[in-house]
Amino acid sequence: EEPVFLRKKITLLRAFSLLIGSMVGSGIFISPKGVLKNSGNVGFSLVVWFACGLLSMFGALSYAELGTRITKSGGHYIYILETLGPLPSFLFLWAEFFAIRPANSAVVSLAFGRYLLEPFFAPCAAPLAAVKVVSLLGYYTVLTLNSWSVSWSARVQTALSIVKLLALALIIVPGMMLLAQGHTENFQDAFDRQSLVLDKLPLAFYAGMFAYSGWYRDNSFCCVSLLFCRNIPLAVIVSVVTVIVGYMLTNVSYYTVLGTQDVLASPAVAVSFVQRAFKSLISVVPVLVALSCFGTMNGGIFTFSRTLFVASREGQWPPLFSMIHIRRHTPLPAVMLMFPLVTAMVCIGDIYHLLNFFSFSRWLFIGLATLGLIVHRYRHPELQSPFKVPLFIPVSFTIICLFTVGMSFYSDPVNISIGCIMVLSGFPVYYLIDILQTKLSSFSPSSDYLTHKLQLLLEVVQQEIKTY
């Protein structure tokens, strides 16, 4: 009885919550072990964390300009489509669906299950089967929430953003107190050259950038939502600087309490930290960390479903995924699409192998997006943007991203090669779809029997006039 379209439910506060909420999530509780393992010592791992923060700032500012220059919705996908063309944008969509997003969601889900169960089995590790079952239950809960209501998923994200900051505070404050009392023994020989593993440095950056990666998902989403675009650069700068400071202090706290071997041996670093520092918080911090991971899952599903929604409207994804539930006004088909792949990756995957696997594709296309900003500036010098970064920022960011992607083949050839093959497999699919669309152009989309039946089953229709 009323128009069916995605409502504008994201205020500036909610946009800020999405950005902070996804950046401060599972990464800071997963990545310390990966950064330390692939950098070799405490001192250099802290350098990697700081460098990843600066690199994220460059990327976030470049995306902020992209968002103000290209005002169509769709985030990363639409940036590549508008600057580099349909083939690179389809390859991104292909890699995002089959590699980046399901593997990322699986990593966060596994962290959720690990931290939720760890207190019940301490000092032993939680059984892997139990972790995977709880991980899937958490992911399915987020799917249901995003299918049910845009408003409720946004409210949950706002509330969990506060929980994330509280979890960090409960790690930072005790660690800084112990450091102030003179507990600096774990920082002796922090830059020991004999322990450096420079050949694994790209994997250390992959782990560190994973913790900061919320700027890539939700900065693009916030910009293209056309809500308060003039405030987006300020929100990005404040958010990223806040997260850099928080992450550096968190890692210093970890190393103040735990030695190098303790961090490398721990299946859940925050749990080991609390066990060593404040046993009275043993049941509190892991639950807060699990809720942080829950918020990251929620933000990831929220944004990726909109990417599929826009790609479907652009004709590069099946039309069913641009449809809206007639009562809930949620992009139900796009939300539910990730269900089987994430389930499979949680069942068969390991956190750090999955992280290396999807990081190749993610940073390849992030580098291409900022390359697209440089191309767009060259092609449209007359275009006035309300926000413009110095050219060296997107240039340096693009070079570092593509260099890291290339070097990672040497660091982890198996997982990186699988990720590369996944991207390249999109080439024949793109041309096959192009041929089929040409041959079937005389047919109306409504004649697609399967699409019509799925519409009836899911109670979804094409949105009317207004767009998100």
Give unreliable regions as ranges: 219-228, 440-447
Strand percentage, roughly? under 5%
Question: What's the total helix number?
Answer: 20
CATH fold title: Amino acid/polyamine transporter I
Compute the number of strand runs. 2
The chain-level mean pLDDT equals 78
List the domain count as a whole number. Answer: 1
Report the helical percentage: over 70%
Choose one word for the global shape.
globular
Largest pleated sheet: 2 strands, antiparallel
**CATH C-level class:** Mainly Alpha
Q: Taking Cα atoms only, what radius of gyration do you get, to the nearest Å?
A: 22 Å
List the helices and strands in order.
HHHHHHHHHHHHHEHHHHHHHE
Q: Based on the structure given, which CATH architecture is correct? A: Up-down Bundle
Under CATH, the homologous superfamily reads Amino acid/polyamine transporter I
Report how far the terminal alpha carbons are from each other. 20 Å
The class by helix and strand makeup works out as mainly alpha
- Order of strands in the sheet with the most strands? 1-2
What does this structure look like?
By secondary structure, the chain is mostly helical. The protein has one domain: Amino acid/polyamine transporter I (Up-down Bundle). The chain contains 20 helices and 2 strands. The protein has helices at 12-23, 27-39, 42-69, 76-84, 86-121, 128-148, 150-180, 201-212, 214-224, 232-257, 260-265, 269-277, 285-313, 332-336, 339-348, 351-379, 392-411, 413-424, 426-439, 449-458, and strands spanning 323-325, 460-462. A two-stranded antiparallel sheet has the order 1-2. Helix 1 crosses helix 13 (285-313) and helix 3 packs across helix 16. The radius of gyration is 22 Å and the shape is globular. It starts with 11 loop residues before the first helix and ends in a 6-residue tail after the last strand.
